[in-house]
């Protein structure tokens, strides 16, 4: 089923990612890519077929995240719905949410049973036991201030003892000089705060802030917000998976 739209949703003409997802579902064109630009690095491509992968094609960190999910699950920023579908096939009670109307419609067509359209910050429905945010989904908070705000806000979405499950990366290696030192301006904003924008064919999206947060910094913010943090996995280039659980009063 598809419920009402919570808050804002992306219109198709401003939605390169959702348009790419919908286009691939219709065409099965394996060459389709969403172009990603940033204020930090050279343009990159996201192959759209990657977003339609089955569980057996997912990296270990994502499978471990699926293993961690329990109870009623909300897959935030679900995209094409691959993680929600994997959980659904496992017999889990999962709802997929995305701000893209085109992504939501594609998930419905793919067979995701429960889908919500809209902005997670505007969600006012039933609570969940697990909020899943994969592919650095926590990045949507944009900044460290946004992280602090979201960790407090997320308590409104969780049942007692509920958890957030997400991955992120410490991107400090991108600032490493040849001599092993790090070229970081300590007077500037946090180095993990990046600004992105996307294009798909002739569709251009608005600029948005995205956060990559190191594990030590996340530990501090999680403790301040009242969560117990558990490190579940550490991979290459400081890519890690965590569970943040609400502390019992």
TrEMBL record:
Residues 73-162 form the Methyltransferase domain. The keyword Lyase does not apply. GO terms for biological process: methylation. InterPro entries: Methyltransf_25 (IPR041698), SAM-dependent_MTases_sf (IPR029063). SUPFAM superfamilies: S-adenosyl-L-methionine-dependent methyltransferases. The keyword Cell membrane does not apply. One of its GO terms (molecular function) is methyltransferase activity. This is Methyltransferase domain-containing protein. The lineage of its organism: Bacteria, Pseudomonadati, Bacteroidota, Cytophagia, Cytophagales.
């Amino acid at each position: 089923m598809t419920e009402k739209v919570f808050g804002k949703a992306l219109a198709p003409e401003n939605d390169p990612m959702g348009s790419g997802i919908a286009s691939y579902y219709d065409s099965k064109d394996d060459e389709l890519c969403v172009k990603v630009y940033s204020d930090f690095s050279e343009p990159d491509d996201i192959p759209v077929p990657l977003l339609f992968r089955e569980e057996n094609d997912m990296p270990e960190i994502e499978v471990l995240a699926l293993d961690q999910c329990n109870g009623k699950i909300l897959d935030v920023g679900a995209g094409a719905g691959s993680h929600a579908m994997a959980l659904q096939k496992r017999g889990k009670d999962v709802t997929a949410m995305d701000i893209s109307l085109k992504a939501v419609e594609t998930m419905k067509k793919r067979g995701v049973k429960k889908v919500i359209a809209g902005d997670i910050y505007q969600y006012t429905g039933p609570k969940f036991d697990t909020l899943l945010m994969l592919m650095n989904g926590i990045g949507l908070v944009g900044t460290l201030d946004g992280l602090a705000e979201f960790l407090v806000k997320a308590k409104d979405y969780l049942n007692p003892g509920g958890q957030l499950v997400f991955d992120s990366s410490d991107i400090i290696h991108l600032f490493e000089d040849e001599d092993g030192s790090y070229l970081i301006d300590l007077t500037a904003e946090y180095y993990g705060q990046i600004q992105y924008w996307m294009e798909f064919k002739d569709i251009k999206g608005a600029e948005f802030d995205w956060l990559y947060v190191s594990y030590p910094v996340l530990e501090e913010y999680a403790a301040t917000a009242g969560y117990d943090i558990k490190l579940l996995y550490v991979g290459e280039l400081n890519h890690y998976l965590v569970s943040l659980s609400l502390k019992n009063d």
